[in-house]
Amino acid sequence: MRKFSALLICLMLFSSLLAACGGGKAAPEVTSKEGGTTNTGGTTTTQNEEPKEDVADKKVTIKIHYPLPDDTTLRQQEDDKIARFQAKYPNVTIVKDDWQYSVNEIGVKMASNEAPTFYNTWATEAQLLVERGWVADITEFWNNWEYKDDMNPVLQEQFIVDGKVYGVTQNGYITSTIVNKKLLDAKGVALPPMDWTWDDMYNTAKGAADPKAGISGIAPMGKGNEAGWNWTNFLFEAGGDIEVNEDGKVKAVFNSEAGVKALDFYKKLRWEGNAIPQDWALGWGDAVSSFQQGRTAMVIAGAFDVIQPALNEGGMKPEDVIAYPMPAMEKGGAHHGILGGNYLVINPNATKDEQEMAFRYITFDYFTDDALKSVEDTINARKAEGKYFVPTPLEYFSDDSEYAAKVKAIYDKYDNVYKYDPQLFSLLEGKPEAQFGTQDYYAAMSNVVQESFSKEGTDSKKQLDDTAKLVQENFFDKIEQK
User: Fold this and answer.
1) Averaged over 111-119, what is the pLDDT?
2) Does domain 55-172+340-411 have CATH number 3.40.190.10?
3) Highest CATH level, class, for 174-339+431-478
4) 0.85 exceeded by the pTM?
5) Residues of the signal sequence (predicted)?
């Protein structure tokens, strides 16, 4: 993370020295009756200026990012936060808005001035949002925030563009594979090693699949941009990249030997292993639901997003739900998974007061004892309901921070807190998502995935070459970098 604070302090001190020195030796100051200061060596007297009005004293309305109706637990947590926030800031009116960010809707939302004061978005969106002017520069608020240096630098860096801060990380993920051990046991398939390979994944998926019973060995996402997103993990594992920047231009490079290997592996799961769902056109929610309902032995996603509903809505047991890193292409290879995350960004159309209050709301529970208490209360509430608390693998705070140690101490006290295999974290290797035209690339690759799953014998190299040409001409060539 860039260290803004040291530079800012130096500039402030330097400015103060200049002001004090003026053109010669500074004259002594005495306090006036009115409480101001009088320069006894000069000709002018400066009285105290009116104190700057704190935004907390103003009537401000903010429209906040609010969970979807079916996220009842998250809504309860947000409602509790709202109550605590308004107790501290009684002049603030809060309007709930459960709109979820969509790259296809954000432009309309901004143009019609209907976007919330702050909204959730993903790591891929930083360049797009900054270039289109759909996100506010919050560097001033960030630099004045006491906890900025305790944030997770790997995650926070994704929303620092040209030295300016445009978002606050909520949490992050390195794409993982989540395994349903119960389905493996039912077919007599041994758990693969945590340090596994593509061959291990293939054999596990093929062995666990039971097509006649409607159970797949693995459910790669097959529709929507998420299909391209899922596949890209394998591109990374094979040593490939989505794009490179050459002489200020973005060039597609996913039609590489690595890309061919990754696409051929997908086809192997489909046509040789018969390991994917017969109805393979699954979106993100479909794939996660399939795992939750016990209809697939493996799914690829952020671990929290799969494990939480599997345990608390699907009735699965912690010992049967195991988070794995993405498999290495071969033994000794990297377990690359896409590094992504959730970020809260502020609407540039909001007033300065609204933006500042939105920043205070976003960071309200960060690094606080109230937040620790809220975590513990949530764990206890889940326990009373017979449910589990599932931590996110990557938190907003740095792993070596004092706060991280406090959180871990709470987790260790309870038996209903899901425990990840410690070996997982030593194997996870996150690779950041591309920052230019990423969603356009994902969409184009989704078409390739669908063609590969629907037609046997397609030419992987030709598919990728054609798609790279399409992405290059229609999207990457139109990107203007600053």
Assistant:
1) 96
2) yes
3) alpha beta
4) no
5) 1-19
